[in-house]
Amino acid sequence: MKDEVWECKTVDIRVFGWMYRPKIFIAVFGDYADLYKGITKTRSYVSAVDRVKDARSGLDIDEPKFSTGTFDYLVRV
Questions:
Q1: C-beta separation of 6 from 16 below 8 A
Q2: pLDDT tens for residues 44-61?
Q3: Domain extents for the chain?
Q4: Among 19, 63, 66, 71, which is disulfide-ready with 4 (CB 3.0 to 4.6 Å)?
Q5: DSSP per-residue letters across 27-73
């Protein structure tokens, strides 16, 4: 939460990114959920967060580079 890295989940897929502005999600990469869970996991959430943070810091976009707030404020379902 402190890094404002988001993980959008389905049963099979994870999409990692961040909320740039309310209703604007920037996806960095997607991966298979099974790679992150269970005894057969081969990927870590820590490395996924680091990958998103590296991608975000490398972009030349207006500051602040991410929005904070509640889910309802940022996503507005």
A1: yes
A2: 999 999 999 999 999 999
A3: 6-75
A4: 66
A5: EEEEEEGGGGSSTT----HHHHHHHHHHHHHTS--PSSSS--S-HHH
